[in-house]
Amino acid sequence: MTAAQQLFNGRPLVDELRRLSRKNPGYSGTAMQMAADAIEWGNQPSLNGRSLIDALHLSVRYTIGDSKAAIRTAIQALSASRGMQS
Asked: Which of 17, 42, 79, 83 is deepest in the core (most CB within 10 A)?
């Protein structure tokens, strides 16, 4: 299963990240939206001078519940896809 096909709460991870990003304003929401785009398009952008994975690690501290779990799942998916590209 590719990162773009990964499920979270029974829905595609990309869709859940976008839905949850609307509930998390600011840095965390932006990082979640960028993670959804990165998983979908296969790129690894940076956010405020940090790699996207580092930005997600930072934002995991400021979220709770499903948002935190979705970010952790996105980190795993992006790390796996980055490892495959090397």
From this structure: 17
